[in-house]
Specification:
This protein is α+β, with helices and mostly antiparallel strands and 567 residues long. 36% of the residues lie in helices and 19% in strands. The chain contains 13 helices and 18 strands. The strands form 4 sheets. A 6-stranded antiparallel β-barrel has the order 1-2-3-6-5-4. Strands 8-9-10-13-12-11 form a 6-stranded antiparallel beta barrel. The termini are far apart. The relative contact order is 0.07.
């Protein structure tokens, strides 16, 4: 049965307990006899699929009795070593009224979307609610989405795993709580980071396709653009270009500069078309697990985009701007007061989506569609516009509409110059403090020099007068950020290591003083161990575990009497 349009007051929220009554976590009622939760919520009984019976409580349903439940056949996906998975479905021993089911919805977890969730932490077994905002993808394959708490007290804790994450505006369930992260206790409280994580509905669908029957909302990729991921990569350079654009972070604080990439793939260019299709398929949360694993593992370097980096890939061939607006509005579940036409729904909301539109010059009215794409860019969208004819009027219009003003580009270049100088300062400091480690010093110097050279090239780039310069400046900005963060992380590591390094140096010095009392033959044996410890402690950053072992070996050797001598 399909979920109702509304949440029925949250009656889909369930509490999961052990047979002994201990709270294990939360879950989401789907249909009449299925509960979605995290795999780690169910106690591990040593079997490949747990057979442990748990109790499910419909906490928001008056007078509801606990219902025994077990993991449903074929619906157990424990968390893998790469952080993927951790989803499961439970089958209830007796059906419940279907009107209590959750309204699962495919909704791109765009940055800053207000959400809330209810769990069952210790001492609050009847439930506690938290508010947060979606904070972007995280994890090795970006399966998880961060949740920034509304306040420090709004971070999930034990008892929230499996809880549905509800979109505040639409009351649809868009994901499931899975975990949290806390900075170590030695981080100052004012700087300590605590964040929660959720698994989006589309990722759940990838792991548990049976959940489709309870999900609303259109898929993120139009069927003609879905790749079977079996053809490999023939145009590696183009595939890398696509992956770089999809990997890039959205422009922030760049008012008046649209992040738009135009691409030409002519009608008979099947190689490029398949590269594009492959990229959007791998980037989609729901589709990327549908092909062979080698599509990712054996892909040429730099050709796999991040999971979740496409929000909408649409074939606009023959479509009107109103039809495309409807597709966008439905994808984001946009609402507008009064006038509910698709264009009004888009105009009334921020639309921070990454959109790939294919066949723009084959649309019903290409120029009207390009102008609608300008509206999307103004509402916060990143756009890749794919044309089939390099001489089309629509392409010329797009290049003109999305050309940034010269003074805005000049301001951006000036800002980048300041950030390059800051990056160079950080790199110089890191290299100076790590001067005894030649590889560190050399790499930092090379990074700083490369930034200066590339900035000079950008200032004289012939694309400065076209929209294509935005992609180059954004990519360069990413490089500057990466270099700066790397240098600052090096400095943080050095500072954090200093107390322990100093302790080891004092320990080494105190035992070094004992060498004078040793015979010359003993000293000859101890000196190599001493030199190894000194060398490791001199490296910046220091390999602390290896340095500790080196000091311990030297200390143990100092205490060990010569062969044949009584201890």
């Amino acid at each position: 049965m399909t979920a109702d349009e509304t949440s029925s007051g949250g009656t889909w929220r369930v509490r999961i307990r052990s047979a002994a009554g201990d709270v294990l976590g939360a879950g989401v009622l789907l249909g009449s006899e299925t509960v979605l939760t995290c795999a780690h919520v169910i106690p591990d009984d040593g079997l490949p699929v747990p057979a442990t019976e748990v109790l499910v409580d419909l906490v928001e349903v008056a007078d509801a009795e606990p219902v025994p439940a077990r993991v449903a056949d074929g619906c157990w996906v424990p968390q893998r070593s790469d952080g993927c998975g951790d989803v499961a479905l439970l089958r209830l021993s007796r059906p419940q009224p279907a009107e209590h089911a959750a309204p699962l919805y495919r909704l791109p977890p765009v940055l800053g979307r207000p959400v809330w969730m209810g769990g069952f932490p210790e001492g609050l077994d009847n439930g506690h609610y938290l508010r947060a905002k979606t904070a972007g993808r995280v994890g090795p394959r970006a399966e998880w989405v961060g949740l920034d708490p509304k306040s420090p007290r709004d971070v999930v804790r034990k008892g929230f795993s499996g809880a549905g994450v509800e979109d505040e505006a639409t009351r649809h369930v868009i994901g499931m709580v899975v975990s949290r992260y806390d900075d170590p206790v030695d981080v100052p409280s004012a700087e300590r980071l605590s964040v929660s994580y959720m698994i989006p509905v589309e990722t759940i669908l990838r792991h548990l396709p049976v959940v489709h029957r309870w999900v609303r909302g259109a898929r993120g990729v139009d069927r003609p653009l879905v790749s079977r991921l079996t053809a490999g990569v023939q145009d590696v350079g183009f595939a890398q270009r696509l992956a770089v654009w999809l990997r890039r972070e959205p422009l922030t604080g760049r008012a008046g500069i649209a992040d738009v990439e135009t691409v030409v793939i002519e009608d008979d260019d099947r190689v490029r078309y398949e590269a594009l299709s492959r990229a959007v398929t791998l980037a989609d949360r729901e589709l990327s697990g549908g092909g062979p694993d080698e599509a990712v593992s054996a892909a040429p370097h730099g050709t796999v985009p991040p999971l979740g980096s496409v929000d909408l890939a649409i074939d606009v061939t023959g479509r009107t701007d109103t039809e495309v607006a409807l597709r966008v509005a439905d994808r984001m579940d946009l609402r507008s007061p009064g006038d509910t036409s698709p264009l009004s729904r888009v105009r009334a909301n921020a639309v921070p989506l990454t959109i790939v539109a294919v066949g723009v010059d084959r649309a019903h009215d290409p120029e009207a569609l390009v102008r609608f794409m300008k509206l999307l860019a103004d509402r916060g969208s990143r756009l890749m516009l794919v044309f089939r004819d390099p001489h089309s009027r629509g392409l010329r219009l797009a290049e003109r509409l999305f050309r940034p003003e010269a003074d805005r580009i000049g301001t951006w270049l000036d800002e980048l110059a300041g950030r390059v100088a800051l990056a160079a300062d950080r790199e110089h400091e890191a290299a100076e403090r790590g001067a005894r480690r030649s590889s560190l010093s050399t790499s930092h110097a090379e990074d700083a020099t490369a930034l200066r050279i590339n900035l000079t090239r950008l200032r004289s780039d012939p694309d400065l007068g076209s929209h294509r310069v935005v992609a180059k400046l954004a990519a360069f900005e990413h490089s500057v950020r990466r270099v700066t963060e790397r240098a600052e992380e090096t400095l943080r590591v050095i500072d954090a290591q200093q107390p322990r390094v100093q302790e080891l140096k004092w320990q080494l010095a105190s035992y070094t003083a004992m060498l004078g009392a040793k015979a010359e033959s003993e000293r000859a044996e101890l000196i190599p161990l001493h030199r190894a410890a000194v060398r490791l402690l001199a490296e910046v950053p220091c390999d602390l575990p290896e340095a500790c072992r080196a000091v311990d070996r030297f200390v143990a050797a100092v205490h060990t009497p010569p062969e044949g001598e009584a201890p």
